[in-house]
Design a protein that fits this description.
Radius of gyration: 20 Å
Number of helices: 9
Structural class: alpha/beta
Largest sheet: 7 strands, parallel
Shape: elongated
Length: about 290
């Protein structure tokens, strides 16, 4: 939607394609609210991080959708541990299988809203949690709830070792694309499960297929894939140790009221001269 005459704020409910035209014609705009949490397409199209409107303050929906996405991550985690991908396809009684999440070692890659909410959901299970994020915890980095161990991305390989479950919940940037490849999957080991509720391009798909086929990891649950949508007949569909949901951790029905609340909050904050929630850092890429 476009702003009215003299509007200073824009609530944008579409993709990046038509946005440059609006930003160029509406020079009085001072801030823009985007409808998505992951803004990599807006960077790729040169809408953010270019000379188009360097004066504009950007806000995205990061954090707004964290609760349903974290809920989905937990559901996928439990499904893997309880061998539900295999049992959902079974047509005979079979052998008993399954593990408990209680007391397990869990590594969360990403330090934003999804990780924060997932840490709350994991508390009753008494897990041992390591969080991997761009910057390790320090004086300039706010602590995460539950006092998990927090390390920087330079410690990723070490944080993957010994984890029963690895959850990807980070923003997609040039630095994080292909973050999980053959070496990282091998570091996880044959007892580990991978859960991805972030972006498909965080994972090197051919390497994941190889690791799942060879048993180098125990299984994977993916709400996002590369390519996406995952084509019919792709090898991942035929693997019994892989569970795939069609980017449904936050459906349109879940998102609409959450985005409306974020837009309302940021409109009020802009009027009061306060910092916007979900602010986008053009230098960081998210």
């Amino acid at each position: 939607m476009g702003p009215g005459q003299g509007a200073q704020g824009l609530i944008w409910l579409s993709g990046p394609e038509r946005l440059p035209q609006v930003l160029t014609s509406e020079r009085e705009l001072r801030w823009c609210q985007l409808p998505v949490a992951g803004v990599e397409k807006f960077f790729a199209e040169g809408v953010i991080g270019a000379d188009l409107r360097p004066d504009l303050a950007w806000a995205c929906a990061k954090g707004s959708y964290a609760k349903p996405v974290a809920e989905h991550a937990l559901a996928l985690t439990l499904a893997l541990l309880r061998a539900l991908p295999e049992r959902a396809k079974a047509r005979t009684w079979g052998k008993q299988a399954g593990e408990t999440l209680f007391g397990a070692r869990v590594t969360l890659v990403g330090g934003g809203g999804i990780t924060t909410e997932l840490l709350h959901l994991l508390e009753p299970f008494g897990v041992s949690t390591t969080v991997v994020r761009r910057r390790a915890q320090g004086s300039a980095v706010p602590p995460l709830p539950g006092s998990p161990r927090v390390v920087g991305t330079d410690q990723l390989a070490h944080a993957l070792q010994g984890a029963r479950v690895v959850v990807l919940a980070l923003s997609l940037t040039p630095e994080s694309e292909g973050l999980i490849g053959s070496e990282e999957l091998s570091a996880m080991g044959p007892e580990a499960f991978l859960v991805n509720v972030a972006r498909g391009r965080h994972v090197v798909t051919p390497a994941l297929v190889d690791a799942l086929t060879a048993g180098r990891i125990a299984g994977a649950a993916l709400d996002v894939t590369d390519p996406e949508p995952l084509p019919d007949g792709h090898p991942l569909w035929s693997l019994g140790n892989c569970l795939i949901t069609p980017h449904s951790a936050d459906t349109a029905e879940m998102v609409a009221p959450l985005l409306a609340e974020r837009a309302r909050e940021n409109t009020a904050r802009a009027r009061q001269g306060l910092a916007l929630l979900g602010a986008v850092d053009p230098a960081a890429g998210y």
